[in-house]
Design goal:
The protein is an alpha+beta fold. Helices cover about 35% and strands about 10% of the residues. It has a two-stranded antiparallel ribbon with strand order 1-2. It has a two-stranded antiparallel ribbon with strand order 3-4. A hairpin with a 7-residue loop joins strand 3 and strand 4.
């Protein structure tokens, strides 16, 4: 069951109609059911974007925003 019509439509396009979004970078054969996932893939894999850091004292950057464990 889908709580939003747009989620149902996305499900139909990807599962029932086989709509896929493919990466257009040379040599990359990745395919995604959602364009947003393709865009994230391109930014992270092909452009090396790492927009999320743990804090100003740490130089480690990550691709996903979320909780960060404190290290020693």
């Amino acid at each position: 069951m889908f709580t939003q019509r747009c989620h149902l439509n996305a499900h139909r396009r990807s599962i029932h109609f086989g709509e896929k979004h493919s990466c257009d970078f040379e040599g990359c054969e990745k395919m995604f059911t959602q364009r947003s996932n393709l865009n994230a893939h391109r930014r992270i894999i092909h452009f090396g974007e790492r927009p999320y850091g743990s804090d100003t004292r740490c130089t480690h950057l990550t691709t996903h925003q979320g909780p960060v464990l404190q290290g020693n």
